[in-house]
What we know:
This protein is α/β, with parallel strands linked by helices. The protein has two domains: 2-90, Alpha-Beta Plaits (2-Layer Sandwich), CATH 3.30.70; 129-289, Vaccinia Virus protein VP39 (Rossmann fold, 3-Layer(aba) Sandwich). It has nine helices and 15 strands. Helix 4 runs parallel beside helix 5 (169-176).
Amino acid sequence: MWRQLIATVERAHAEPVSDWMLAEGALSVTFEDGLDQPLFEPPLGETPLWDQTRVIALFDATRDDSLIAIKARAFFGEQLLSLTSENLEDQVWERAWMAHFKPMCFGQRLWICPTGFEPPEPQAVNVILDPGLAFGTGTHPTTALCLAWLDGLDLEGQRVLDYGCGSGILAIAALRLGASSAMGVDIDPQALTASLDNAEKNGVADRLRLGLPDAPRGAPSGVVLANILAGPLVALRGDILGTLRVGGLMALSGILREQAAEICAAYDAWIDFDPAKYQEDWVLLTGRKRSQPLKP
Length: 296
């Protein structure tokens, strides 16, 4: 049994309340949206918070959280918009998290299956992948769009680059679909660790290279995917285009509908775009690299 102390505060007070809770012995502190306010694209290097943020502090059940609440009210006063506490039952957290995931099909032949599930179609292309620290389990529309696109390609013998690889799901799926080799690039070393672990589970680690953005990449790839965010897609345009050979195929995602025109404008000197594909508020842009850029 655990106790959670939940403080709702304006954004400017979230970090001070978090620090105070930790100083009072909280085992962990997490932030949640207090107003159903989506945050789609933070600037690079920033961790944004919501206008109203719920600061959730976890305490051992032996601690007197009512006393901590009294101290918090005395210390922060009207900065606390609300302060509540509740029990948190102990459970096997890995299983509780996994209960929200099930096998999912993308395109005609590609399945993403969590560990412990029997693949619904054993003869299909099955990727074993569990939710973990790195982004990418197939549940987000941007990942789903990229997976369905990969499923529709003839990847036999292709070299693939996954820019912003997260869990490695796109590179691993490409390898399982017939690509000869793949490279995953990410700014987060934890993502590279997760990608390697997932590649080993799927028997493709010997064909997957991983590295930070400054790692050598070798010859340009025939297929490049960049499922990141609109801002980085524009800022990194030269680097991403440079990884794709002439005539190669590109997929750009992590883009909201209203951002699609900006991304097309940034890349269309070099890319002949296909019609965009949409899922919910998200868009996938795909196309082929020209041999010469269009003249301005």
